[in-house]
Amino acid sequence: MTGGPLEGVRVIDLTTVVVGPICTRTLGDQGAEVIKVEAPGGDILRYLAAGSRSPAMSGKFINFNRNKRSIVLDIKQAEGLAALKRLIAGADVFVSNVRPAALARAGLDHASLAPANPRLIHCGIVAFGTEGRYAGRPAYDPVIQSLSGVAGTFERATGEPRFVPMVMTDHITGLVAAQSIGFALFRREKTGQGEAIEVPMFETMASFVTSEHLGAATFDPPEGPSGDARLLSPDYRPLPTSDGFITIRPNDNRQAFAFFDAIGQPELKADPRFATPISRTEHAADYFTIQVEALARRSTAEWLEIFAAADVPAARYNSIDDLLDDPHLGDVGFWQADEHPTEGRIRRTRTPVTFRGGMREEVLPAPRLGAHTRAILAEAGYAPAEIEAMLQSGAAA
Amino acid sequence: MTGGPLEGVRVIDLTTVVVGPICTRTLGDQGAEVIKVEAPGGDILRYLAAGSRSPAMSGKFINFNRNKRSIVLDIKQAEGLAALKRLIAGADVFVSNVRPAALARAGLDHASLAPANPRLIHCGIVAFGTEGRYAGRPAYDPVIQSLSGVAGTFERATGEPRFVPMVMTDHITGLVAAQSIGFALFRREKTGQGEAIEVPMFETMASFVTSEHLGAATFDPPEGPSGDARLLSPDYRPLPTSDGFITIRPNDNRQAFAFFDAIGQPELKADPRFATPISRTEHAADYFTIQVEALARRSTAEWLEIFAAADVPAARYNSIDDLLDDPHLGDVGFWQADEHPTEGRIRRTRTPVTFRGGMREEVLPAPRLGAHTRAILAEAGYAPAEIEAMLQSGAAA
């Protein structure tokens, strides 16, 4: 028993890279038992990212694959495919990020699997919804960032389209897939019926972007240009201090006036450009210039102390590496020091969400490729001799 | 009956702006009945974003608040607070993004609410986990982008920290909150017990960023610098063509060699710098320069046709406005033309995830402030005279 809200849920995970693995890691973090099915070469994320102590165990792979066990099956061989189907027949959830046509050819679509397991929930993560013309096309995260308007938000802000330097559309879609599986598990408790879920990356991200930025174009005909102008300013960024950066957000009148006092320019409180939220929005460029000029005069630490005393919303800026030493993250035990059985001492992040009703207790280390092949086959009812034969033939590894 | 996996789930929503409303919209989209409880002034998102046809009904508010009904209660008045507690006593889920101390003072924390409703799931969305030193501080999305390393990814990529031009940390945390509620609902079906969930924005986003970018610093001591270098290049962006932009991703050897053929430089296939994925990574700057020079020679449409024929992953770049005309989104019915009862014709996005087991059927339009105050109070058992008295006193509106 794992603890956690998804205790007792068995997940067969036929996914690679990020979009699927963050979905199934989330399920595992919350108590599900996750079996990661890998092709003989293994999930490409094992190799893609730099930084590892042994082959096929990159840091990025480790971070996206804790709380899973690994079985290697060659599903191009009949016996490997049969083993996968036997695993799925005993599972609650099957997650794939394989193209639907290939899945159907292998008999791994929901319609083919449901007769043996009517309670099965299949979650198919796809690049594009199967009813549109892009269906079946390959997609990488930047392709979806390019199509879905993520890069477009930067063009509006700075004049040049850019990608967010994360595989953000994979990551968000994977979180939505885990969310959808939770909803389906809830319904299954009441109806006893499994089902098929389709989670398309493009549509998911187009919904994400347009919920934020459809704006006045929500109306037909539009009431003005699309986009939330507050977010599309070229100046929407941490601002330089004398020794680093700071983020401030003096929004309402109290905060704005406290800010003017704190920077020693109380006369601005009487300036009609800055008297109300609306006038500050109309004179956003001037308001911004005042911030830039003032903040450059002191260090980040000095400003943080001054703004804390004045109750002006302000925060330090953390580089990626600064997160390792952030004092709040230290307080909440965000960084856990794990001893990985083969990779040595690693940093693991705590599950950020807490459930008062009980959390997963034991954390499984990210698995070496095929580390649990024998054990999982045995649990599925394969006899020792059958397992040896599969290992000999390469149907398992 | 709404249809959808969360049919029959009743949600009381005491949230504003984005982080809470996207959580409860997600629950509503999937079939939950959501009651949005607003203070007399209403959710500030009604006013914040530009573009509306009538006051307090901005496009952005409409997009984040479909499938909800609105009741106005002044919970600073005893009768308003009592009405909220009566609603929560009859609900499955209570979602708040109020600071925990204020919630407890009003008796709206889980411990105070559970005696009247032991099956209640309370999801408290907070800026910072309650056990750390930043607990209780106010946070706006840019504060979390600044602290959590989101802005830090841009410093690594371009030398300058930036925010993603969306309220991305609100948006993602809200999706994670909805996910967590689904998991808790599943467990409650089995145990009968409610619970309290805490979803902190900072920790959620620090986990998001470091899962991607801890990299070689996953190991202690680190095996190299943090960060996934593939994503942190200044050139990680859509590339200019002769008339716009295009995104290409020739990753494996077949794709890379097909790309060299397609641009009329087949000799590069024999160039040792580009012979393998590893050598192309080592010579990423050169590989990039070749792409930039080639792509500028033709139009986006020409390149898309050429790369489609050569099976090189490539995609158009969509500005925010281009999404309105994207052909795939048209095929899948992404844009729905709704007639809002008071705001006229609007564009609504379809729920991107599909559940074969049944979807929500009727879509509720985003509510006017307090549109359902009388109806919801009546459903909660208030007599007509009591309702009139509350409206007179301003406890309801």
UniProtKB/TrEMBL annotation, chains A, B:
Keywords: Transferase. The keyword Zinc does not apply. Gene3D superfamilies: Crotonobetainyl-coa:carnitine coa-transferase, domain 1, formyl-coa transferase, domain 3. GO terms for molecular function: CoA-transferase activity. It comes from the Bacteria. Pfam families: CoA_transf_3. The keyword Transferase applies. PANTHER family: BLL6097 PROTEIN (PTHR48207:SF4), SUCCINATE--HYDROXYMETHYLGLUTARATE COA-TRANSFERASE (PTHR48207). This is Crotonobetainyl-CoA:carnitine CoA-transferase CaiB. It comes from Belnapia rosea.
